[in-house]
Structures are given as C-alpha cells and as structure tokens.
Amino acid sequence: MMNQLIACCGLDCESCDARIATITNDDELKEKTAQEWSQLNNTKITAEAIHCMGCRADGAKTIFCSNLCEIRKCVNEKGFNTCGDCVELDNCLIVATVFQHNSNAKKNLQQH
Predict the structure, then answer these.
(1) Max intra-chain CA distance, the chain
(2) Cα–Cα distance between 19 and 72 in angstroms, integer?
(3) How far is it, in rounded angstroms, from Cα 112 to Cα 109?
(4) What would the mean pLDDT of 55-67 be, rounded to a whole number?
(5) SS3 category, 8
(6) What pTM value is reported for the model?
C-alpha cells in the first residue's frame, strides 16, 4: 500500500512545511510558509491558510490542495490513488510541472 503522505502528484507531504506547521502548531513556520508560498504563487497567502494534514490523508487541507489543485481533481475524477496509477504519467502535462521542480516526486509515484 502506498504511503498516505505521498500526494497525488508524488510530493512528500510528510516533509511539507504546511503539514509540519499544522502538526506542531508552529505559528512562526506557518507565517514563513505563507510568505514563501505567496512569492511562489504571486498571490497573498495568509498564515491562517497554512493548515493541512496532507493531500491524501484524513483531515484539514489547504484551500489549494482541497479545491484548486488540478492534479488532485484529475486523480479523484479518474478514481486513482495517485498519478502513479495513470498510464499517461510520462506524458501528462498537468503533473509535468511538479516533476520539473521536484525530481523525487516521480520517483515517489513509481516506487509504490
């Protein structure tokens, strides 16, 4: 069985600052993560929005993970656990951006 902390796209939620800050109730890390994500996404993200237990884990999710992530939507619509279940993985343009920025994501999907 695949680790529930591997996100639909292959990112490792266990090492995600949003999850760590949620579990440890670390307001400083929430603020730092909000600032980093605001810059990365060219939008304002508040520390209050940094509340997540993981993409596929039970519990809270950030607004992006719960409602906006096209990868998670696609996986759920197809009835898959992750993108690793899809035969189009190697040619998928939706998840390709994640793979460009995180070389371990595809490996995480292929290991399980």
Answers:
(1) 41
(2) 17
(3) 6
(4) 89
(5) coil
(6) 0.85
Asked whether residue 1 carries a pLDDT value surpassing 80, the answer given is no
Three-state secondary-structure class, residue 56:
coil
Query: What phi and psi, each to the nearest 5 degrees, are found at residue 2?
Result: -75, 140
Can you tell me the distance from the alpha carbon of 13 to that of 6, in angstroms, rounded to the nearest whole number? 6
Q: What is the CA radius of gyration of the chain?
A: 14
Q: Beta-carbon neighbour count of residue 27 at 10 Å?
A: 12
Do residues 14 and 22 touch, judged by C-beta distance below 8 A?
A: no
For 65-102, write each residue's pLDDT tens digit. 888 899 999 999 999 999 999 999 999 999 999 999 89
Helices (H), the chain: 17-24, 27-41, 63, 70-78, 93-101, 103-110
Q: How many CB atoms lie within 10 A of CB 48?
A: 10
* Integer Cα distance of 74 and 69 in angstroms: 9
